[in-house]
Every structure is written in structure tokens, then in C-alpha cells.
Amino acid sequence: MQKQTVSIFWFRRDLRLEDNVTLYHALQSKYPVIPLFIFDTGILNSLPKNDPRVGFIHVSLQKINTKLNSVGSSLLIKKGATIDVWEQLFQEFDISAVFFNKDYEPYAIKRDLAIVALAKEHNTLCFSFKDQVIFEEKEITKSDGLSYTIYTPYKNKWLERYKSMAPLVEYDTQNHFSSFHKNHFDFPNLQQIGFEESNIKVQPHNLAQITNYHETRDFPAMDSTSYLSPHLRFGTVSIRKLVNWAVQKNDVFLSELIWREFFMQILFSFPKVVSHNFKSAYDGVQWRNNEEDFKRWCTGTTGYPMVDAGMRQLNETGYMHNRVRMVVASFLCKHLLINWQWGEAYFAEKLLDYDLSANVGNWQWAAGTGCDAAPYFRVFNPDIQLKKFDEKGIYIRKWITEFDLGYCEPMVDHTFARDRAIATYKAGILK
């Protein structure tokens, strides 16, 4: 029996039908489009069975599938190593073209190159477009063509380029839904994929919270953040829509979106940052890496309220307020002299919005080892941070229920830890 000729659109970190660049192009191809998602065992095998991010992906795919059902189509869900899944797909279908949005992380780049090579063996074309960023790879560079490593000039160039294009085009995919392949693929439940429900959930995002972002963003008790970050990470919202909105509503929030792209281009241009200091001069810093100290930091029992509240919020919800993230990261690297890689790995395990480029970039910023980082002699005082940003103790009492009933003493004196950190850094920085 002759195999049906189709195009395939491969969902990855772009879990939406609206304003999806490569999907827009796929739906205008010659053949019916099968929408595909692969639960990649190369990633899943290292995750706990109740990982809430997998649950969020599954819920997001269900929403997509429901919309597809309304036009007589459905998602094709596969699980396995991506190369094996694609080998199987080439056996099942006559695939004219493969479409996917570009990804810039080292694992994704290697994966996509392998799939492109496989497609070539089957005489199949591959098309990929920019979708998760406004400017990618080498689009924002210095006059000599090299990547920026300082944020402010990168931001200025970014804004200059944006203004020449604004407003950004949002891609109208909905008028082309008739091009989806007419089918009814079975949609697996979470258990069939090998996972189970988590008590931790991704919250709906709220753009209304961003209007006064510049005034409220540093006060964790106000809970005035947008909860957008997991949605940006998995692409359930369009970055073009967000940027067009932020330009009109709040410059400070727009700056945060630009930071996101800055760290993405740092990761692309300097992939060593995943496992090495951006500034190699810091390779000589002698970290204490005390495992018992690290455990107390992880469990939120350091005796510093802002640190402990943040870690407990993370452990219980998968979220942590941005101001608090800076405080807990500085505390781990400076007060406890524990390598930033330990904290980065713990955040990678717990954060609902975990994004490799931002996580590595922000941790190296806090440690002083990254590009455009806080200087090594800048050591946040957690008590001063508490007085400035949670003066009434509302945030800390929410997460430290025993705060007024015999809360633990600080595990290390701030002045001692600060002096020790500065001396250790100074001695370790390679000339």
C-alpha cells in the first residue's frame, strides 16, 4: 500500500498554534501537515516521575489537541530517542518536508543536526525558522561582528534594531488550519508516557500585573509578577506578542525580555558557560563545597529568613521571586563559598521556568564569574535585603511558618562570611 505524502511540523518549546512562525510556513506547504510532539527520553530519563514540567507540557499539548480536533486533525504523540522516532516516522509516512522552530541550546543543536542529516538520507527537506526570540545568534553584534558580553550596549543595539522593525509581525496561522492532516491519533495520558500528576502546577500568566512592574517587582510579598516565565520557556505564549505589548506598557519589563535574549546569545556564542566559568580568571577560586551547608541551603534552614523563605517557596511551588533569587544565589556562592554549579543544578531540578541560558547566566552573574557579572566583592547582606524588600515580614512568614516560634540561628555570621568570600576570591583570581 502506498504511503501518504505529508509534511510534519515538530513542536518543541513552542507549544501553541497561534503566532507560531514555522507552523505558519508549514501550513502553506504543498502537502497536509501532521503536527508532532516527541517526549524525548534523552531528556525525560533523568527526571522524577512526578516532574511538574512534564505535566505542564502534557496539559499544553491537550489544549493544542482539542483545537486540532475541532478542525478534524490531532496531534501525533511519540516517546523515545528522537533519532529512533524519526527513523520510525520515515518508515510510516512519505515525508516531503520537516518543519521546526530553531533552538539554540547545545543539546538541541546537536539533536537537530542529526535529524537534518537523517532527513537528507531520505531525500526530505528540512525548514527551520526563528520563533522563540526576536533577535537570534549573530543578529545583534558589535561593529566588529563579535558578540556583546556586556548587557547595556547589547540592549541599546537591540532596541535600535527593534525600532526599525516595530511593530513586529504576528503570524496568522488560524486562517490556514484547513491544511492540517485529517486524522485521529490517540492522545496518551500522562501515565502512558511514564509520568504521574504533580501537586506543583504552573500558574496562568497575567499580563495585567506588568503595568506597574517597575514599582512592584522587588517586593515578593506583593506577588505582583506575571507568572509568564514558564509560559515563555515552553512557548505557550508568543515572544512577538509580549514584546509588542511591553514596548507600549513597561520599559523595565521589556528590559527583562532583552536580558533573556542576551543570555541566549551568550550561550550560543560561548557554550562553555554551561560547565565552565565565563571568566576563566575565576577558575582558581577555591570553593568550600561543604555538603552539609549545601543541604541546609536547599532545605531553607540557613537561619537567614530571606534565603530560607525563597528556598521553601521554590521547593513547594517551583517558583521563586526574582529579587529573592539574587539573594539566595549570592548567599550560596559568597557566604557559603559553594560553586555556582551546585546551585544551578538544584534550580534546574526545581524551577518550573528552568531555562538553561538564563539559569547559567544568572548564576554566573551572582557568583561573579559570568559576563557583565556582579563584582566578586559585592556580597548581598540578606538582612538588609529583608528590611528593604519585606520590611513587615509578610513574605518570610508565609513560607517560614515557625518564624515567630523559635526560628533557627544564622548558620554563619554575615561579616565573617563576607570577609572570607572577598579574601578567597581575591586569592583565587588568576592573574
UniProtKB/TrEMBL annotation:
Organism whose genome encodes this protein: Flavobacterium granuli
Its EC number(s): 4.1.99.3
Domain Photolyase/cryptochrome alpha/beta: 5-134
Name of the protein: Deoxyribodipyrimidine photo-lyase
InterPro entries with a match to the protein in the record: Crypto/Photolyase_FAD-like_sf (IPR036134), Crypto/Photolyase_N_sf (IPR036155), Cryptochr/Photolyase_FAD-bd (IPR005101), Cryptochrome/DNA_photolyase_1 (IPR002081), DNA_photolyase_1_CS_C (IPR018394), DNA_photolyase_N (IPR006050), Rossmann-like_a/b/a_fold (IPR014729)
Family note: Belongs to the DNA photolyase family.
A GO molecular-function descriptor: deoxyribodipyrimidine photo-lyase activity
Organism classification: Bacteria, Pseudomonadati, Bacteroidota, Flavobacteriia, Flavobacteriales
Enzyme class: lyase
Assigned keywords, A-Z: Chromophore, FAD, Flavoprotein, Lyase
Cofactor(s) of this protein: (6R)-5,10-methylene-5,6,7,8-tetrahydrofolate; FAD
